[in-house]
Automatic annotation (TrEMBL):
PANTHER family: NEPHROCYSTIN-3 (PTHR45641:SF19), TETRATRICOPEPTIDE REPEAT PROTEIN (AFU_ORTHOLOGUE AFUA_6G03870) (PTHR45641). Keywords: Repeat, TPR repeat. This is Tetratricopeptide repeat protein. Gene3D superfamilies: Tetratricopeptide repeat domain.
Length: 203
């Protein structure tokens, strides 16, 4: 499937190959890094065909996949980790330019959830940066819950509530009162998750 002869098939196959590299089991961190780097190259090749204006849905899918790959890429230093996560955030934000809430609600929620996780993982140089990153994550998870309703998507709802609770727990606080409020919010989220995560069903 040559790029010039079968561009659509080429883009699809490169995207699929990237997913395969991402899923490939690795015996060592070095192997994992190589697999993920291969995946990133595949997604970037797919994006040479899957242009935003020509194939917007496929473009958004590949950008989301590329964001996941950057998030999964092992890092030797905190600087590398920060760069990888920033790349992931950029991919998710670009995907959300297509994955609008009203048009693609499921995909919107998936990418918002990924974006929230990336903000949570983003290394921070200062407490102020950390607070901003976690607040961004909280906004993402709240956006996800606008789609992942308890009655419609119970497991995903519970997962997102759990993620939101973790974010509130991680949120830096300037005063004991702020800390108390953050922890209370986290408790409410965890309680909401436990309405779905029953002991017998999801031990």
């Amino acid at each position: 499937r040559k790029k010039d002869e079968y561009p659509v098939d080429y883009g699809m196959t490169q995207n699929n190959l990237g997913t395969a590299y991402t899923d490939l089991p690795s015996a060592t961190p070095e192997q994992r890094a190589e697999n993920v780097r291969n995946a990133i190259e595949c997604y970037q090749a797919a994006l040479e065909i899957r242009k935003k204006d020509e194939y917007p849905v496929q473009y958004a899918t590949t950008q989301n996949n590329l964001g996941i790959a950057y998030t999964d890429l092992p890092s030797a230093t905190s600087e590398q980790r920060a760069e990888n996560v920033r790349n992931a955030i950029e991919c998710y934000q670009v995907a959300l330019e297509i994955r609008k809430k009203d048009e693609y609600p499921i995909q919107y929620a998936t990418t918002q959830n990924n974006l929230g996780a990336a903000y949570t993982d983003l290394p921070s140089a200062t407490p102020e940066q950390r607070a901003e990153n976690v607040r961004n994550a909280i906004e993402c998870y709240k956006a996800v819950l606008e789609i992942r309703k308890k009655d419609e998507y119970p497991v995903q709802y519970a997962t997102t509530q759990n993620n939101l609770g973790t974010a509130y727990t991680d949120l830096p606080a300037a005063t004991p009162e702020q800390r108390a409020e953050n922890v209370k919010n986290a408790i409410e989220c965890c309680k909401a998750a436990l309405e779905i995560y029953k002991k017998d069903e999801y031990p």
